[in-house]
Every structure is written in C-alpha cells, then in structure tokens.
Amino acid sequence: MIFWSVAAVMAFGVFLHAVATLGVIRLPDFYTRMHAVGMGDTLGIGVVLAAVAIAHVATADSLVASIPIVVKLLLIIAFYFIANPTATHAVARAAFTTRGGPDPITTEGRIQSAGDAPVSTRPEAGGGGS
Which domain holds residue 88? Predict the structure, then answer.
C-alpha cells in the first residue's frame, strides 16, 4: 500500500516538472517562462523529495534510524524552496534591467515582432507633454 502512495506522490512531482517544461516550450515571453520554471521546478523537487522521505521512513528498520535521513531531506527541500525562487528572481531582474522590461503585446494578444511598430508600455523618461 505504501508503495502505491509513494508512487502517486512521485508521479505528481514528475507531473509538475512536465508542466514546467511545457510552460517553457509554450509560453510566449521570457518572464512567463521564468515563472513556469520557477514554480513548477520548485514544487516538483519538493514533492519528489517528500516522496523519497516517505519511502525511506516506510522501508527503514526503525523510525529512529531514519530520522537523520529525513532531516537531511527536509533541509534540502527548505534550501531549494529558498534558493530557487531567489535565483529565478535574480535572473528575471537582470533581464529586466538589461532588456528594459517585458516584450510588448499587441491588442490581438500576440507578441510584437521586430518589424511591427513599437508599442509604448511606459511613459517617456523626460516627463510628459509636448
């Protein structure tokens, strides 16, 4: 019974990774892709490592013997839940300062190509009025 529970939790973690991969392929903008990877990867790793912890506790000879391994897995999960969103934010912020913000989206909902007329998403830097 515990095998199927661990398999279900592990399959859910793999599903989250698959959704994150699909988001990288299908989403139109760098920032939305970063969001998909940051969320899906963090949750996917957390769920998979939780399944590993459950499997270790279920198959260990004694509960006391499995405590160090479970604590290490929980520390890895905590580190990953802190480090991955921080790294995603740092990369997105670097892209924002380098590229100047998200790609403009036209009213039809498609990403504006390089040949289209530019769409202003922010006011000009010199202050308004002509």
Answer: 2-99
Measured from the Cβ of residue 64, the count of other Cβ atoms closer than 10 Å reads 8
Domain-embedded: residue 37: yes
Longest pairwise C-alpha distance within the chain:
78
Distance CA 46, CA 80 (A): 8
Report yes or no on 62 lying in a domain.
Answer: yes
Residues of the chain with pLDDT under 70: 101-130
pTM (predicted TM-score)? 0.71
What are the C-alpha distances in Å from 40 to residues 32, 37, 49, 90? Answer: 12, 5, 14, 17
Q: Is residue 88 part of a domain?
A: yes
- The tens digit of pLDDT for each residue in 68-96 reads 999 999 999 999 999 999 999 999 899 88
